[in-house]
Every structure is written in structure tokens, then in C-alpha cells.
Amino acid sequence: AAAGIAAAPAPCAGNIAIVFTGDGGGFVHAMVARVPASFVALRPAEVKALTDGAAPVRWWYTSEVRDKDSLVGRGTATPALVGEGYVQRSDGEVGVVQHYSESLVSTGDARVVRAATVVVDVTRTDGLPLSAVAAYAAMVALAELRPGAAPPDSVLGLFAGGPVLRTPSAWDLAFLRALYRLPLDRTALHQRGALVADLVAAAR
User: Fold this and answer.
1) C-alpha distances in angstroms, 106 versus 63, 94, 96, 179, 204?
2) I need a labelling partner for 174 at 20 to 30 A (CA). Which of 1, 17, 138, 196 fits?
3) CB-count exposure of residue 85 (10 Å: 0-12, 13-18, 19+)
């Protein structure tokens, strides 16, 4: 709410899970065995860091490619029309996304983070208030971030040692606002430029 991010109206299916557990690695091990499709986009080393690492908070995302109308690639038929393309779906299957636009701006598709799972190991967060851990968990759930990301002047430095913020900073909120304003149906280079421009404007 502080970042102005709109949530879907009820009834809706939740796509963020924040789990508090006494064994972070054990929980992720169980998830890998139970729903392996959720980890298909991760490299083996990344999965190992989630299961065997010592991070007090660990997370991963489930993503998929959709067309510009937010439709998910379906089926496995050989594309018959120019502009169609194969995509990796979140369930591990290969689907097809159809492109009919001749726009020079539109990419025709968008990579979408379909779900975020954040696992908090309470045995490794001792001494920190729940509000601080919740703010950290919300930040990594709302923005697709690399594990270990700890920029200065950010709640993401909560576990980095030294002086820490226990609430989202003005920079954190500016980043989230800029991120959620991005047009999805654009190239990554265009999105990066727009994100940087928004952050520079916020600093003025």
C-alpha cells in the first residue's frame, strides 16, 4: 500500500506466499520434492543454495511468458503462422504464443512473475522485530531480486550486518513505484532505461 501497488479485487487467487518455519532448508527440500515444476527456471546451484544455504530468508519466483494480452502460451503444436514462438510455461511444458502485431515498439510478449514464495527461517532471525522481517519479505516478494541483494539505504540490508533499516526506505518505495509503472510489453533494455529514469527523477 505504501508503494501504491494495486492488488486484485476479491475474490482472487493469491500469488505471494510468505512462510515462517523453524527449518528453512528442510521446508524448501519438501517443496522441491512436492512441486518440482516451481523450480524449473532455477539452475541446480540456485536450488542447492535454497535447500542447503544458511540464509535467514530465502525466496524464489515462478515465471512464464505471456502474449501482450496476458494470455499464456498453450499447447505444443508446431507454429504455423509467422510471428508465433515457443515459450517455457510455468508448469515446465512448452507452449506457443501467437503474435499478430506489426508494431515496432511492442515485443509481442511479456515475461510475468506468476508467483513468489518467501521462506523465513525463524531460528535465524532472532532479535529482529516481526515488522522488520515482514518488510524485508514484502520487498523481495514484490520485486524480482537476486538472493543476497543488499543495496545501501534499503531494508534489504537487514541481514547484511552493520547499521540497518527496519522499514522500507524512500528509495525502496521509489523503486517499487517505478517498477510497477513499467509497460510490460517492451524490451528489457527499454524497461531498464525507464526504471533508471524514474529513479533519477525521484532523487531530484
Assistant:
1) 20, 23, 18, 18, 30
2) 17
3) middle
Q: Do you know the residue count of the chain? A: 204
Q: Which three cell numbers stand for residue 125?
A: 532471525
Q: Alpha-carbon distance 137 to 117, whole Å? A: 9
Specify the amino acid at residue 180.
Answer: Y
For residues 192 and 29, what is the distance between their CA atoms, to the nearest angstrom?
A: 34
pTM, two decimals, is 0.79
Q: What is the pLDDT of residues 130-144, one digit of tens each?
A: 999 999 999 999 999
Burial of 112 (0-12, 13-18, 19+ CB in 10 A): middle
CB of 15 closer than 8 Å to CB of 116: yes
Tens digits of residue pLDDT in 34-62:
999 889 888 999 999 999 999 999 999 98
Per-residue model confidence (pLDDT) at position 77: 36
Residue with cell 525502496: 172
- Helix (H, G, I), strand (E, B), or coil: what is residue 175? helix
